[in-house]
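Before relying on records like the one below, remember that each one covers exactly one chain. Contacts with other chains, cofactors or solvent are not represented anywhere in the record.
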Amino acid sequence: MVNYLKEHRFQYKQKCSASTIFAIAASFLGLIASGCSQQTAINATANSDSSSKTLTTKTTDKNNVIRLGYQKGGIIPIARQRGELERQLATQNIKVEWSGPFDRCATLLNVLNGNRADIGGCGDIPSISGIAAGQPLCIGSVQRPSPDSLGNAILVRGDSPIRKPADLVGKKVAVNQGGAGEYLLLKVLEKENIPSYKVQRVYLSPNDAAPALYQGSVDAWAVWEPYISIAQLEHKARRITTTHPAPTYSIMVVRTDAAKENPVAVKAALTALSEDGEWLNQHTNAASDFLVKELKVSDAVAKQVTKNRGPESYVFPNTGDIAKLQKTADWLLEQKIIPQRVDITTAVCPLETTAAR
């Protein structure tokens, strides 16, 4: 997969708007470029070669910065700690900036939407929800679902009488609205033939849902790692689900303008993140050590998070991935979780790469 990412290069053709020429005082030359233009604007006394060099430098400086936003416990903060991504991109004259950590995808997507980051790692449900809401985001690369992954779960308190999904009828379950938690709950209820209206959804962020569960304000919590392991090992919470009835994709979400204007840096960052994932798959103890430093959790929690999440393997989406993500998007629309249909084909970043294997 890494070889695949390296072999396919983006071919980017910039679309440039017309330059505007302004004459400034004789002692001072102004230089203005519109849009993505790399043409120079000069006055009658300016040296055209010098002006062109100045503008090209400014444009290159802008396009050689990639900003990575991250949640707790994902591949991006581990890549930040490891440092190989920054070293690799530096050889291509690309500077890396970091933003985070954020407690959930919705917050991270807002950061991307606000032009404060260019790439961030999220689940497919919040990513599709963000795109459906009109956020200028696209799908860069994906990690395919693992049917036996334990990275998502519905949790209850250790002393709770709730033992199985059917016991949730008439109960309150904390979920993140339009995210992985709500999706998990609805899919579990669907599998068990339990009408969704018989279980009350309480929309809370992970930071609010955790104390709500421990203190008894809600009866259960549909959530993901690393919150599962923290709740289990540090607060004696208990799973009532094992594997996910509808395993989800992880997605490297990209700000659409970054994909259009700066595809070389975006491709380089996605490639480097994929290589970090492959390295960590071969060094699981190192992955756990990174989580201990990042999350400030015990070694036991970090090891369980690493085990539950499984391998980190990101690829560019192929036609099969697009079809599966489209099925998920259509289901979200049917459930009225998203306000409009998302065409996954057009939601894939315009990075001019052929499909991954």
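The chain is about 45% helix and 15% strand.
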